[in-house]
Amino acid sequence: MDYNRAQEIVDSPSQIDVSYNGVAIWIDKIHEDRKTATIHLRHSLEERSEVSISELKVQ
């Protein structure tokens, strides 16, 4: 995924299914300067990670 698509997903009022390494996630925040995103698993609000935007996939 690229930065612009990730930002569209974050800004979208609709739910868009996104995965990281085959696991469903939510994108919490986009970091344009680092080309990364802060994400969390759909079933775990407490466990957050910062990953490369390029590793995110729309399901």
From TrEMBL:
Protein name: Small, acid-soluble spore protein H
Keyword field: Sporulation
A Pfam family: SspH
TM region(s), chain numbering: none
Similarity comment: Belongs to the SspH family.
Listed GO CC annotations: endospore-forming forespore
Keyword Ligase (UniProt): no
GO biological process: asexual sporulation; sporulation resulting in formation of a cellular spore
Localisation per UniProt entry: Spore core
Organism of provenance: Psychrobacillus insolitus
